[in-house]
C-alpha cells in the first residue's frame, strides 16, 4: 500500500478521493488552507464511512505560498494534486484564479520532485480540452487543447488550461524523472458529503429548491465524483498512465431538461419544485444583462461539447456510472443531509 498526498482535502473531489484511498488501505496525508477545517474533513470522511480516517495526517499549505509543501510531500509515494480555485462566480480579475492554479501546481510539482515522489496525478479539467473552439460537432479527445483566444473562455477555463500546460512544461524541462498524469473531468456530480460542495452540484440544488424556475437550453457532460476519485487512483499506479491525459466523463451530454425530468420521476415529492418548463435562450440573454450569475451560463446556451471516454475505459479499465445515476446521487445526498434549506 502506498503513502499518498491529496491536496485540497476540504473539496468535493478531494474528500471523496481520501475516502476511496482509505477504503483501499492506503496511508493518506492531505493539505488544507487552514487546519481549522480539519474537523470539517473528518465529518465528511465519517459521512462517507471511510475506514481508518483517524490515521489521516493534515498539513497546512496554500497554493499561493511556498510554506508547508515540503512537509506535505515528505514520505509520499504519489501525489494527487486536486486543489485549485473553483469559484461559484466570475472574479473581477482573472489572475485570482490563474495565479493560484498555475503557481500552485508548480509548487506541488517542485516539492514532489525534490522529495523523490514517483508520480503526480493532477486534476485538470475538460476546461483544458474542449473550450474556445466555437460550435462544433467534433468529439473531443485527450489530443485536444482549449484555444485560449477563442469564444467562451472564462477565467476558470483559462486557469485550468494554463495550469495544465505549465505542469507538462515543468516535468518536461525540470521534472528530473518525475511522472505526471492528468485527469480531465467534465462537470462533477454524485453524492455530496457536507455543506461545502462544488459549484457543479449547485445546478441540482437550484432545481430542487425551485430557484431554477425553467431549465435553460444547455446540455452538459457529467461524471460521478466517486468515479473521478477511482480514476485518480487507477492513474496513480498504472504503468500505462505515465505521461498521459485522461478525459473523465460518463458518456453523451445530458440536457438540463433531462436532468429535471430524472429528478421529478425518481425523487417524488423532494423534486416537486424541479422545473417543468424550458427557458428560451433569448430570454436568458436578456436577463443576463442584470444578473452576473446568468451571464456565466450565456456562453453555454445551445453549445454541445461531445467527448470520448474510451481511453480511460480501455487503458485503465474504468467503468463510470451513467449521467442519471450521478445527478440522482447528488440530489439524494442533498435531501438526506438536509442541505436544501438556504
Ligand atoms: P471544490 O470542492 O471547490 O474544491 C476545491 C479545492 O481546492 C478545495 O479544497 C479548496 O480549498 C482548494 N483550494 C482552492 N484554492 C486554494 C488555494 N489557494 N490554496 C489551497 N487550496 C485551495 O471543487 P472540486 O470539484 O472538488 O474541485 C476539485 C478539482 O477538480 C479542482 O482542480 C477543479 O478545478 C477540478 N474540476 C472540478 C469539476 C467540477 O465540476 N466540480 C470539473 C472538472 C475539474 P478551500 O476549501 O479552502 O476553498
Automatic annotation (TrEMBL):
Ranges of residues in domain NAD-dependent epimerase/dehydratase: 4-242
Positions of transmembrane segments: none
Sorted UniProt keywords: Oxidoreductase
InterPro entries the UniProt entry points to: Epimerase_deHydtase (IPR001509), NAD(P)-bd_dom_sf (IPR036291), NAD(P)_dehydrat-like (IPR050425)
GO molecular function, one term: oxidoreductase activity, acting on the CH-OH group of donors, NAD or NADP as acceptor
One Pfam family, short name: Epimerase
Gene3D superfamilies (alphabetical): NAD(P)-binding Rossmann-like Domain (3.40.50.720)
Oxidoreductase among keywords: yes
Keyword DNA damage part of the UniProt annotation: no
Membership in a protein family: Belongs to the NAD(P)-dependent epimerase/dehydratase family. Dihydroflavonol-4-reductase subfamily.
Name of protein: Epimerase
